[in-house]
What we know:
By secondary structure, the chain is mainly beta. It has one helix spanning 162-170, and strands at 26-27, 44-51, 54-69, 72-83, 93-100, 106-114, 119-127, 132-140, 144-152, 176-183, 186-194, 199-201, 210-219, 229-236, 243-250, 253-263. It has a domain at 26-69 and 77-101 and 157-263: YmcC-like fold, CATH 2.40.360. The protein has a 16-stranded mixed beta sheet that branches.
Amino acid sequence: MRKITLALILLPLCFSLSGYYYNNHIEEYSSWFFSDKKMQVGEELTYVVSYTFIKLGEIKIIVKDKKEINGKVYYNTITYINSYSGIPFVSLHQIYESKLNQNYASEYFRGIVKHEDYSTFTEYNFDYDNSIIKIKKGKVKPYQQWTDSTARLNQEMQDGLSIFYYARINLGSKKSVNVPCFVNEKYENTKINFYTYIQKAEIDAVDYDISCLRLDGKMNFISIYGLTGYFEGWFSSDEASIPIVANMKVFIGNVKLELKQWKREGWKPPKFQK
């Protein structure tokens, strides 16, 4: 049996099979937008991932820091994906890092996958000034570089982690977009539909219904997290736009992603008002 990868999950958007879509026009992707939503340095979000009634593991998503270089703002983010011990066919430990510019497009991506005897890495450096993506792949400890190549770059792109933040910032914008992504050394597109009506969501971490906005979409490729096909998720309907619960279609079927705990100054899930 294929080893179940917990990276069957996430995100970048965190969601799954829905069944209904906007009929509105699909807009051209643009990373230039204005929003009252805010990223907060030090934010930590922890999710439990489950398949049917089996809890597979956890995902922790962190905004590490914010820097200003030559008048431009950059955010450094990191995600840890770890399976629980004792789960049959599951042994996963992965780390993904993404550097975002002030438009929430990717400037740099690094993924580390820990295997039983060694770890591998993948790096994408998005050099917009020279219109190229610098690609490096190899082995960690002892260091071995297997790939050192470039790909053309003619617009701002998303990687497998940065698209998560793009979705959060654009939440509630009432539009459908095809978002250009660079995943697995290929140019891909992710369709995302944003909605404006308030819905409720339930999680074990709080004893009330949470006020949420919803999005859904489709990937016609297999992302670095194993996510493929349709997805949907519910995000808090406030400026934090924190993912609360999600369903996603992956190799083994549908998995559920649920917010377990959080660290964000001054934030708690907003209550749903009837």
